[in-house]
Amino acid sequence: MNKVIITAQELHRGYKVGKKTVEVLKGIDLEILQGEKVFLCGPSGAGKTTLMYTLAGLEVPDRGEVLIEDQNLYTLSKRKQSKLRNAKMSYIFQNYYLLPELTAIENVLVPALIGGKDRQKEAKEILTRVGLSHRLDHLPAELSGGEQQRVAIARALVNDPQIIFADEPTGNLDSKNGSEVMNMLLELSDEYNATLVVVTHDPELAKLGDRVLTVTDGKID
Ligand SMILES: Nc1ncnc2c1ncn2[C@@H]1O[C@H](COP(=O)(O)OP(=O)(O)O)[C@@H](O)[C@H]1O
Ligand SMILES: [Mg+2]
Questions:
Q1: Under 8 Å CB-to-CB from 205, ≥6 apart: which residues?
Q2: Alpha helices, DSSP H only, in 44-161?
Q3: pLDDT band at residue 120, thresholds of 50, 70 and 90?
Q4: Which atom of ligand 1 has the smallest separation from the CA of 43?
């Protein structure tokens, strides 16, 4: 039995819109196991992104707790939170968020630089693994959407993360590129023994994981 790597307890999060607060997460409890591939599903506006960001250390909950292994994420100092995120977590977004002035390999090296590690060799290997050995020195603008997302996948792996969070990672891709990218992400998560948490509104894609958590009206069924 694998150990629990992410625990959420009674997570609440709302947004102030004018004078009103809109409740988005209304008390979410969950546990995700080491190595598990979990899809967060649900309709647009259901709170999937808010939930993922809250689990990922990117969005502070109003109430409730997130534990990464046995560390209580939001009671750590900002500095320790950043360190934990850099060492254990990585992120993939719908819009890739590559730095436009940096080449593919330089983009992949950013998390390693932040962590003070020399990963030149690994970066090249991972880019080769995602089929981009001929694109190492290209800028994002010189790459297709699918290629940019593969660079983002390589960047997500360079620090050998324990958890990869992905928010609609295939949302900007056509179905062929989208399924290639999703399959690559699932395969590489296995190879790197990483836990994968993916947000999608596509129930077909969600079937590819180990477990689907559906967010409905701010809760998980
Ligand atoms: N920064 C924000 N300010 C105000 N409302 C927000 C903010 N972020 C998200 N929301 C609202 O919270 C709800 C859930 O958003 P989100 O988590 O992005 O949903 P999903 O990813 O499932 O589409 C939506 O109604 C959205 O409009
Ligand atoms: Mg979203």
A1: 39, 170, 178, 179, 182, 198
A2: 48-55, 78-88, 104-114, 120-129, 145-157
A3: very high
A4: 22
Residue 31 CA to residue 93 CA, distance in Å, equals 23
Query: Among candidates 81, 142, 138, 144, which has minimal Cα distance to 107?
Result: 138
The answer to whether the CB of 116 falls within 8 A of the CB of 159 is: no
- Rama region for 217: left / alpha / beta (φ>0; ψ in -120 to 50; rest): left
Q: What one-letter code names the amino acid at 157?
A: L
Segment 113-125 mean pLDDT? 94
- Name the CATH superfamily housing domain 4-220: P-loop containing nucleotide triphosphate hydrolases (3.40.50.300)
Whether 77 lines ligand 1, by a CB cut-off of 6 Å, is no
Cα separation, 52 vs 40, in Å, equals: 8
Asked whether 24 lines ligand 1 (CB < 6 A), one says yes
**Burial degree of 67 (CB within 10 A; 0-12, 13-18, 19+):** middle
pLDDT value for 221: 79
Q: In what order do the strands lie in the sheet with 163-167?
A: 89-93, 163-167, 195-199, 37-41, 211-216, 219-220
Single pTM value for the model: 0.96
Torsion of CA 149, 151, 153, 157, to 10 degrees: -170
Question: What's the rounded mean pLDDT across residues 186-193?
Answer: 96
Residue bearing tokens 């625990």: 7
23 CA → ligand 1 middle, Å: 10
